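Handoff note, outgoing to incoming analyst
You'll be picking up this chain. Sequence as last confirmed:
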Amino acid sequence: MHFAKSGHTLTRYRFCCVALCICLGVSSSTAVTNTVATAEQPYWQQIETLGKNQDVYFYAWGGDPQINAYIQWAAKQVKSQYNINLVHVKLSDTSEAVSRVLAEKSANNDSQGSVDLVWINGANFATMNEHSLLLKQWSNKLPNFAFTDPNNNPAVNFDFGIPTNGMEAPWGQAALTFYYDSLAIDGSVNNQPPTTLNELLRWSAQHPGRFSYPKPPDFLGMSFLKYALVMLHEQSPDNTSESLKDESLKAQLNQPATEQNTALVLEPLWDFLDKLHPTLWRQGEYFMQSGVQMRRLVDDTELSLAFTFSAPEVPAAVQRYDLPKSIRSYAMDDGSLSNTHFVAIPYNASHQQSAQLVANFLLSPTAQAHKQKPQIWGDSTVLIQSTLTPEQQALFKTRQPHPSALPIDSIKRTLSEPHPSWVEAIMQGWEVRYGASS
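Most recent structure output, in case you need it:
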């Protein structure tokens, strides 16, 4: 990015100015003291000394206005506290940042990378970890990391089953959330939306064309397919031998996809989709490209049922008149695909200490409580309340949510993400079976 290059140029320019002053005999002891850490300083004090007064280029998805606004709020806070200029580099897909860092490594750019901080999880974390693209053992040293109770909370130490090894700082939690037009659903059988995967199949058959999902590799479409796959393996057969077989296949979801196990593990998903697709929007012959397009189809009354991985997106869309007031959100009774999302620092980030200061602020009770407010973002905190003081706990008290928002405590059961390698396996299998006509 042009501004990333400019930021690095300014940093080198400041360095040259200091060197020039020394050469001219100008006293610069005060300037050096203010910008250079010493070995005697405690670790975090060194991070603060070196991290202030810098730019941080934060590569993060930019597709949600609420999330973008929250990042701008965070930018103002770190500007005030550390004089850090936090620049949100908006991405349509996190893989764009992964590709950039990988290209820089291929070009032997090991210290002046353009990405200082990246919002990441799952498959992209696995890719960056595999290619040694991430800074190691830093997140577990953040002062605010203790608020996540890491010794008793594996969710902050594993990402899609892969140990984070201090390469990621948890930022928030999200879950697959469904929403529907209550005026359309109220006229249906039982006046209720489907609350399980099996009910969804029946509901779609009874209301043809009123539901669909985005085409993979779209993140939201892939999330729906993973939810379906996990739930299909959760359903236990009556036959004991078949049940043992199913348990064995279910366990494979937590292991890397291989040529040997892929066909058997994914077979129930293809059987399910073969039944579902003829009942979908446009008979499953064409698929929308994104969650935004799916939301527009709901607003245009072409769809009555949809879903998102960003629950606050729904009431925000209603308030912007991008969805009707009759929209309501809910969670599936059989389980909600859920995961913790993180921020990470590339191994070659130009401003590693500054990025750590930003990540630590994002983990603070102040930032986490502000982010969890439904009218701000609604993203669930990763902090464990028992680690907080009463004053800090009070920050998380919220007012009455919007009628279209996901009701508090509506997610009764969470489903863990399968191993990230299954994303590629699902995508390839889906393209072979259904992609040609879409």
